[in-house]
Amino acid sequence: MRDVNPAELYRRFRAMRPYGLSLRTWILVLISVGVSIAIAAWLTPTGNYSHIGYTGSVMTKAHHEAQDLPVVDRILEFQTVEHFLSFLGGSQLPNGTQPAAPHITAEELSLLDGPCPLISTGESILDRIAIRIGSEEDSSRLTIVGKNIQSMKTRLWEGIHPMSEERWVEKQLSKPDNFVFACQHLTAVIAVFQYLNEATVRCHLRDTFNLIHNEWTLASEMLNSLRDESGLPRVDLAALWTLYMTAHYEVMTERAHRWVIDHVKELRAPIMAALKDHVPLVEENGDRLGEPDAAQWKFTNRLHELVEIAANADYIILMPMDGYNGYVPTQTEQSGSNGLFALDWRQREEAYGEMLKLSTRRTVVQLMMEDMMTNGDLKLLQETSGEEFYRLIWAQVKAQDQIREDMRSASAGPLLQEPWVNELNAVQFDQEVEEEGRAISLAVYRLTYGQTDEEWSEFVKMFEEHSQNWGLGLEGSDQLKGFLKFEWIDGRKAGIPAGDLEGAKRNYNELLGLAKDEDQECLKVKNIILVIDAASYASYTTDIYRPTSRILNPGDFTGFVVAVDLEYNPDLGLSRPDESPGYTGEMRILGSLVWCDVVAQLVAQSIGLHDLWPLASDHPNQVYTGPTVPLEVVALRETKCRAVHSAREGYGGY
What we know:
Layout: H1 6-16, H2 23-31, H3 33-43, H4 61-65, E1 70-74, H5 79-88, H6 106-113, H7 125-133, E2 142-146, H8 147-157, H9 165-170, H10 179-197, H11 199-230, H12 237-277, H13 294-316, H14 331-335, H15 345-375, H16 386-407, H17 419-428, E3 439-446, H18 453-467, H19 477-481, E4 484-490, H20 501-514, E5 522-524, E6 528-532, H21 534-541, E7 560-565, E8 586-590, H22 594-603, H23 609-616, E9 623-624, H24 630-650
Parallel strand pairs: 3-4, 3-5, 3-6, 8-9
Antiparallel strand pairs: 1-2, 6-7, 7-8
């Protein structure tokens, strides 16, 4: 037996297992579509969370109420098993570490996919694991949740940021006028972890993990009987599964938590400065008002909301592993920390609140003592002065920082990389490839032909610059961006009529059929192609597709391209069309989201293009702009309804 590198293991697994399933299990999953719909029918409650007793909280109420598209959620994402298999073959853990453990070989992987001699029914280990995650044979741990929650959960599960820093700037979310929108983007992350920490969901996730742990124990027994004969070191796949999921949760929670807290700090800084510098209104006699003025109320209300968001992030964005087979709690968790690591997030909330009160009082006293030491006397400030408000709020912020440091030792260290960046960087430098690395290409078809060469060249420049607008603060992105390439294909030379998306799809599938992987200079993205049609070209070069209302965010109306789903068959449609209503195998996406959002999620194997469609369908131009929040959806739908009404009136009304 021989060791295999992660890239080879991954290729073999994908070749054996379309979408991560053996043929037998894949057929079962297809058959179970009807069962899934039936499950959805009896799980779908009067309110989307009533079957798990979940009603949200003040911070997440808007997201709870916005669950108007229920979807079936396999709580433990299916692609996690594929990533784990890659780790068994030699890849790093999600947190970038590499434990000293024996790797499994390609032959052993084949054994995991074949009939297991220790199972009387003759099933394979991987079949049984697939069934445990959620299938016709074991649907007991499937849940229903709103698409708005589930789509964000899918991103966060893979350690992908809710939004790139460049996208945050493009949407101008740090502007005071967009404060409420910014806060909803932060609480959208909290809503996901509130869902995952709800008792029923938490137990379903734990039980799924433990059932899979049992299968890996069986697999270890099977492989070790052969390894003992060959004199190879024994493997403990179950222990490695626990190790892997611990690292997975670490990346998942720390990246999400850091993203929320960093943006809380970004939003808070200018408000704190404005509060401190603000001079309150005075009465006619020159005395200050005895209560805060309107500006101070506005500042303090916003700061209070940010304190609440940060607090929610601190005690909700956790994935407790009590009851997970093989898990040993950390010293911090074992200490109890007065309930901060309780399984129930509501108990954590209570403990956090009490601790914050005490810590804030201590911090206020400490700041007063520092004043005395600096000034030789206690500096008395009027209750309604900007400085006094600043001092009180700053004391609470410092108290929060201290609790956070006690709870999350990792929050002070470097931010862990997004796993998809690690994976692509590893694939580039596959041992079988030349040292300088190998490009990763995405095909782009030109299907609009009315431009001059100069006009087209200018467009290509604009689009490529827009598509490269990501990576700020994302470790490893600079190295990766140099290897991400567009493969430009002129539709005219291929005989494709202008705007013929199906023609481009057929052409590229033919090219893929003729190509051999070993002969390719580039690793190709094979899930989708991009198309530049007349509308895409106009979105970059004209104002036709700009927002028509001031309630819309201009950042959601920048240049777009069309993504075409190479795996979609219009004759067969989707297996669950009710979860992506109206999907036709194509979707407009903002140019800035091509690599860091769409391709990132495709590489993580967490989505198909159709999974993103519901997030684009409310846009007036039906463009995918990344995750949306309830206030944005309301604005988009209102504008869309107005446009439809105007169009109808323009045609005489009907």
